[in-house]
């Protein structure tokens, strides 16, 4: 493919939402030297290894989610990070909680710090929502799936966190009992969750 000019490179990146991966740039005919020139001119920034973003874009609202979504696109935001996204926790996560498939290689990021959980089968694939955050598709488990996950991993994150999330969910959202029951079954925590769910019904 013929090398594109810096002006054309900017147009390509802008058409893609203002962000481009190095391999996508090369596939589009944008050479590494062009990317370097644009960085020196202050028109492009390297936000993470292999990820370039236009400097005239709006500031990132969730830089940590942005990094995870771009660097580990197959991961799913889960547990406390997902609770925070859905606004059903008072916890402030100091790591980004992600789920990866059991057989996947653990991602290595310099930043942000990650709390990695391995899921398999329906426990990994079901309940994934796709949200566009800072122009990037970000995978996050639904509120109901996250509640079930919190009860499943209650020994790691704390039963108090799971119970608080359930109460906040009940007060802030329309309770989807069908979904909660389904994900409780998928995560094999039906018996654990049942008394708490019944007390809120």
The number of distinct structural domains comes to 2
Supply the CATH class of the largest domain.
Answer: Alpha Beta
Low-confidence stretches: none
Radius of gyration of CA atoms, rounded to a whole number? 20 Å
How many helices in DSSP terms? 11
Percent of residues in helical segments? 40-55%
Strand content: 15-25%
Characterize the biggest β-sheet: 3 strands, antiparallel
On the 0-100 scale, what is the average pLDDT?
A: 90
Question: Class by helix and strand content?
Answer: alpha+beta
Elements, N to C (H/E): HEHHEEHEHEEHEEHHHHH
End-to-end separation in angstroms reads 61 Å
Overall strand count: 8
Write the CATH architecture name of the largest domain.
2-Layer Sandwich
Order of strands side by side in the largest beta sheet? 1-3-2
CATH fold topology of the largest domain? Beta Polymerase, domain 2
What best-fitting shape do the alpha-carbon axes yield? elongated
Pfam families: AbiEi_4
InterPro entries: AbiEi_N (IPR025159)
Protein name: Type IV toxin-antitoxin system AbiEi family antitoxin domain-containing protein
Q: In words, what does this structure look like?
A:
The chain has 201 residues and is an alpha+beta fold. The protein folds into 2 domains: 6-54, no CATH class; 63-200, Beta Polymerase, domain 2. The chain contains 11 helices and 8 strands. It has helices at residues 6-15, 22-27, 32-40, 63-71, 79-85, 122-125, 143-152, 154-157, 159-172, 177-186, 190-200, and strands at 19-21, 44-48, 51-54, 76-77, 96-101, 114-119, 128-133, 136-141. Helix 5 packs antiparallel against helix 7, helix 7 (143-152) runs antiparallel to helix 9 and helix 7 (143-152) runs parallel beside helix 10 (177-186).
């Amino acid at each position: 493919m013929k090398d594109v000019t810096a002006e054309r490179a900017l147009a390509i990146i802008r058409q893609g939402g203002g962000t481009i991966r190095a391999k996508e740039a090369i596939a589009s005919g944008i050479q590494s030297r062009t990317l370097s020139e644009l960085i020196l001119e202050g028109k492009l920034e390297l936000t993470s290894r292999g990820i370039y973003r236009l400097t005239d874009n709006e500031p990132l609202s969730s830089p940590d989610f942005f990094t995870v979504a771009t660097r580990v696109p197959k991961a799913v935001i889960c547990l406390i990070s997902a609770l925070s996204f859905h606004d059903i926790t008072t916890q402030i996560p100091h790591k980004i909680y992600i789920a990866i498939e059991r057989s996947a290689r653990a991602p290595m990021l310099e930043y942000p710090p990650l709390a990695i959980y391995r899921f398999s089968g329906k426990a990994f694939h079901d309940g994934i929502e796709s949200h566009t955050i800072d122009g990037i598709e970000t995978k996050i488990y639904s509120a109901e799936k996250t509640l079930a996950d919190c009860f499943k991993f209650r020994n790691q994150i704390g039963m108090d966190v799971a119970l608080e999330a359930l109460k906040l969910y009940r007060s802030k959202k329309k309770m989807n009992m069908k979904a909660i029951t389904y994900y409780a079954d998928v995560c094999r925590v039906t018996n654990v969750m049942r008394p708490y769910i019944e007390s809120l019904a």
